[in-house]
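ugh ok fine here u go
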Amino acid sequence: MLPRELRLRRAEDFERLRYEGKSFAGRMMVLSVTPNDAGFNRYGFIVSRRFGKAVQRNRARRLMREGLRLLHPRLVSGYDLALIARGGMQSQTLSGVLPELERLLKQAGLVVES
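structure:
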């Protein structure tokens, strides 16, 4: 679980991401990124009701959250990120979601290669 201070919770934050953020689309998810003034990354997860029933939506949220938790130490700080689930994620496991998430983060220029 991500600590509370690393999560986006306010509607204004999501609106700012929507209008000012840059988006990167994949088959399973869309990544929206914008700089913040916090000095650390904050993450938000969006899964529409059209995605499926509550069990499917919660599973998609857990997969995205766990993927970001694993990649968090390798990311550049100072950004707000929102992950929006797409239908292609419904039958995936973490091993299927992780490569696409990493590809989107690299495309956004947020992964620090060590």
